Amino acid sequence: MMLGAEEIQRIIPHRPPMLLVDAVTACEPGKWLTAELTVRGEAPLPGSLLIESWAQAALLLIMRDAPSPDVLAGMVPVAGALEGIRFGRPVRPGETVEHRINLLRLRGGTAFIQGGSRVGGDTVLDIDRIVAGLRPASVLRTVEENQ
Fold first, then answer.
1. What gap in Å lies between CA 33 and CA 45, rounded to an integer?
2. Of 37, 69, 74, 80, which residue has the fewest beta carbons closer than 10 angstroms?
3. How confident is the model over 23-43, as pLDDT tens digits?
């Protein structure tokens, strides 16, 4: 399954400049996904944005069958615990990062995911586990309005 930016935006709510996945290159629904990001700009990609890009690719795997591109309606992705994050070398402008996502378990609206990212043969990110959930926008809006 190949997806470009337009198809990606039909699944997850991220939009440029915060859309940090250029393409999905392969996927086995409910099991794994690979995606790419080509780094633009003049500075190395900060580690926080590398994790965000990887997490957006993970969302594409868990939201593929229930797209929700509008954060004001439908399901909203919420990140939880991040464990065992290790960085390799910096990712430089012009390089293409390949994210590898593995779905460990999906229980209710909560996903347990692991994987990593590579540039060529170099490891740039390893993640032991991220817990992410999908929550109804109406519930999150209610919490916000009550504060």
1. 22
2. 80
3. 999 999 999 999 999 999 999
pLDDT tens for residues 39-51?
999 999 999 999 9
Alpha helices per DSSP H over 31-119:
47-63
CA–CA separation, 135 and 57 (whole Å): 18
Q: Is the pTM of this model over 0.70?
A: yes
Using only the alpha carbons of the chain, give its radius of gyration.
Answer: 15
What superfamily would CATH give domain 5-145? Hotdog Thioesterase (3.10.129.10)
Question: In angstroms, what CA-CA distances link 68 with 19, 77, 137, 138?
Answer: 15, 9, 10, 13
**Rounded distance, CA 85 to CA 108, Å?**
25
